[in-house]
Design brief:
Length: about 525
């Protein structure tokens, strides 16, 4: 019963996250499209690649390992010791922000001040914003561990919308401010994000609802670092696990942001091309952020709650094993079909989407080829997110340590392949290298899942096998829409574009009907959960 309740809460968290993100991101999508008409490609490149990489690296290295470790514990833990451990992310964030800020200012190539003014201010502001965001880390982990369904999404969505509105207003009124605009917007984003969590917990902690739910924190002061006379200051089991995850997270960050590191440190493409690449990358990853990331984060918590880390399948409760295997199989099928849909229809509609979103700046040159390749990459992202979500929820400390060596070799290989593919095929090479990287990670995770379930009667990896009729529907739809793009898109006027869109809609409808007829078990799972 506890496992089923966890599944229902997790499914609600994932679906609510996806729906709310679509709503709020639709607003930011329009606002970002507006700002593209006012900014230079070089300024976009510095903000979207160089400064965002500084912020994301500092935040990721400071908190990712702690998140993984602290979300894996049981409900009976000492939350005071866990909260003390989570506050260590703040001094770590200060260290990484200062260290990386020095590298960004004194080691890397500085953009031309005449083209991108106020670069130094931008570096300081983005580093400071990383530290501000880490102040909310204990609140975030508490919210995730107790499956607060809408808090996370509403907090992130409000902060993103606030950031976009401020950016649009300042870009239109004071375009000459350059990086001052993005510095203020970034600081507003992290401040609003943290304040949403603080305000929510200030209202929730000690309330009748908190008492009813047996919430372990009874006063806000308990969310600050606390010295305990009769207990250890830190949860050392989680601290040791965090250290193992930290070594892994360092490598994972290189793999996740590898193309940005290659751009930043090796200067393989200029700031203008970096800007176009990042816009296409963000456009292509919309589905990954809207759907795949909420599923991965939510069901990581589910698998960590239902199955015990480090135990083989025979030592687990068999009812929980059956539920976890069934959920994993259907999750794999769900994300696979979403990924296939994006890959098939994304190929024929990439140029049209870029032309509508950003005009000729994006739809000419390498933009369409970038988005077509990214449509394929989305399929790899979809499968990898779920397989790694299960794998990381079940790995013991020793397995995590062994996996770190795999990640080390993969990181080095990925960086080398990125460099050579970019020299050979420009910015498209980054996406091809990412496909290779994700393919290797999927192979490792599926091997782990196969080994985990081989002594049982469950085979969740069959979720990666869609029905033959559905595969045929995808092939036919891909061929028809590709020919439609050739004849009707995108320089033949809006009448031809509407014909192309209509043909795509008919093919999508036919594929969806085929899906409903052949994948009845999956449809029932989605409807019921």
């Amino acid at each position: 019963m506890a496992a089923r309740a966890a599944l229902q809460q997790t499914a609600r968290l994932a679906s609510s996250s996806a729906l709310l993100q679509v709503l709020f991101r639709a607003v930011t999508f329009g606002l970002n499209a507006l700002t593209l008409r006012w900014l230079s490609r070089e300024l976009l490149g510095v903000v979207s690649v160089r400064l965002t990489l500084l912020y994301s690296t500092a935040v990721f290295l400071a908190r990712e390992a702690f998140r993984r470790a602290c979300l894996s514990g049981s409900a009976e833990r000492s939350w005071a010791a866990t909260i003390n451990l989570l506050w260590l992310t703040v001094p770590l964030g200060v260290f990484w922000s200062v260290f990386l800020g020095f590298v960004w200012l004194h080691v890397l190539e500085v953009p031309d001040p005449a083209v991108v003014p106020h670069y130094g201010v931008g570096v300081v502001a983005f580093g400071l914003s990383a530290v501000v965001e880490l102040l909310g880390e204990p609140f975030w982990v508490l919210a995730q561990a107790h499956l607060f369904v809408r808090l996370k999404v509403i907090a992130e969505s409000l902060s993103i919308v606030s950031k976009c509105i401020l950016t649009v207003i300042l870009v239109i009124l004071y375009p000459q401010w350059g990086l001052y605009i993005f510095s203020m917007a970034q600081l507003l984003y992290t401040s609003v994000l943290v304040m949403c969590y603080v305000i929510y917990f200030a209202m929730f902690v000690g309330s009748p609802e908190a008492t009813k739910k047996s919430f372990p924190i009874t006063r806000m002061k308990s969310l600050l670092p606390t010295l305990m006379e009769d207990k250890t200051f830190l949860n050392w089991k989680e601290a040791r696990l965090a250290w193992s995850f930290f070594k892994q997270s360092f490598l994972k960050q290189i793999l996740t942001e590898g193309e940005r590191y290659v751009m930043t440190f090796l200067n393989v493409i200029n700031f203008g091309d970096q800007g176009v690449y990042d816009i296409v990358n963000n456009l292509g990853s919309l589905v990954a952020r809207f759907i795949f990331l909420p599923i991965e984060e939510s069901f990581y918590v589910f698998f960590a709650k239902v199955l015990e880390r480090g135990k083989n399948v025979k030592d687990q409760k068999q009812d929980d094993v059956a539920m976890a295997a069934n959920v994993l199989e259907l999750l794999l099928k769900l994300v696979l079909l979403i990924g296939l849909t994006i890959t098939v229809f994304g190929y024929a509609f990439s140029q049209l989407a870029l032309d509508i979103y950003g005009g000729s700046m994006l739809s000419s040159g390498t933009g369409p080829d970038l988005l077509r390749c990214y449509s394929l990459y989305v399929l790899f992202l979809a499968v990898n997110g779920v397989t790694e979500c299960f794998t990381f929820a079940l790995m013991c400390k020793e397995e995590v340590d062994r996996y770190n060596f795999v990640m080390l070799a993969l990181s080095f290989t990925f960086l080398c392949i990125s460099y050579f593919l970019t020299r050979w095929h420009g910015s498209v090479g980054f996406i091809l290298a990412n496909c290779f990287n994700m393919g290797i990670r999927i192979a490792h995770s599926t091997h782990y899942i196969y080994d985990y379930f081989k002594e049982s009667s469950y085979r969740p990896l069959t979720g990666l096998l869609p029905s033959p009729f559905l595969i045929l529907a995808y092939i036919v739809s891909g061929g028809i829409t590709a020919f439609s793009e050739e004849f009707f898109c995108c320089d033949k006027g809006w009448t031809a574009r509407l014909i192309h869109i209509s043909i795509g809609a008919l093919c999508f409808a036919a594929t969806t009907v085929t899906m409903f007829c052949t994948e009845t078990k999956l449809i029932h799972f989605v409807r019921s959960q």
